[in-house]
Amino acid sequence: MVTIAVVNCAEDGHFPGLYRTSLLSEPWLSDGCTMILCSYWHSCQVILSVNVSSGKVLRISPSDSDFSWDVLTLDGDNVIAVCSSPVDVPQIKYGCLVDKATNSTAWHWLNMSSPIFRCSEKVMSLLSCLQFRILQIPVKDVSDCLTQGAAKPFEAIFVSSNINVATDPLIVILHGGPHDVSLSSFSKSLAFLSSIGYSLLIVNYRGSLGFGEEALQSLPGKVGSQDVNDVLTAIDHVIEKGLANPSKITALGISHGGFLTTHLVGQAPDKFVAAAARNPVCSISSMVGITDIPDWCYVVSYGSNGKSIFTEAPSAEHLTHFYNKSPISHISKVKAPTLFLLGAQDLRVPVSNGLQYSWALKARGVETKVIMFPDDIHTINRPQSDFESFLNIGVWFNKYCK
Fold first, then answer.
1. Is 378 a catalytic residue?
2. Lowest mean pLDDT among 17-21, 39-43, 175-179
3. Whole-prediction pTM
4. Catalytic residue from among 180, 378, 385, 389
């Protein structure tokens, strides 16, 4: 058996490395050495076959598709999968090798009808008016990059209507982690925001999964600067392309995405007309002593050196460094009305973090609203809470963009 090597910097169009936390209970084909699994490939999730004898990795979901794919189960040597996009509801697919006799590596994918993913005519009509594309965003200042992978373009998924793209207000969507990724898959919550007239810029800033190890490791120690600059670069990119109205830009993020949201409205106060933050990291210095991941505070703030200096009793020097890395250090410049959605049972980013920041904004005369979900943890993903979150986000942004 062989191991799959870490990919530091993938060539364009080539395998960027394995990014997977779970496997099928029975992932093997009949040859006993080929495993079928999913992995992140830039802004998409793809299906791979991995031969554990030879180490050969093949992308078996269509290479010309910007949809995201997931494996449901195997049917012998065939694959039952689901694929979707930000504007296409999930579809069941049945995959089989084109020609087993010739050892062909090409797979053929058939559509399978399923009542599970049927939508109403109204929903399908709204989705038919939308389009998406994956944008390549060049790094603004490659001279600051210490590795080749960190200098390569990052990506953003742009979702918009088929008409009047430049006049629609824009929501910049930011994932957490920061080592996570926003995929080109269907999200009912984001589809709702699109359906009420917003374009979406879903940014996979450097540090996101699926882009190689060097890009991933370029962010620790540079949070609040590199990731913020990447988001601002992506916004400027769509403005320059005539895809966004510069006077109607909002930001929305959860966890580290909330960290970025609150950083952005402080570092670029004239760029955003409103913001919404879900369980945001607003002050690393006040979080480090009460979070369930204090080591995370050290690594994102100090980089790899943070592992060696980590302590459960931070020094005054450490706390000052955490504060300077945090959005709260820029709070005096914030102008954008900001909505906070907080899970009262969150142990990762305790609710006091968002409350402290919101109270400080209110004291400075910035319009602020806090919605507390008493039974939710960090993800705020209970169905009722998710529904209420995005309904309130839509109402909040309409107040300032419509």
1. yes
2. 17-21
3. 0.95
4. 378
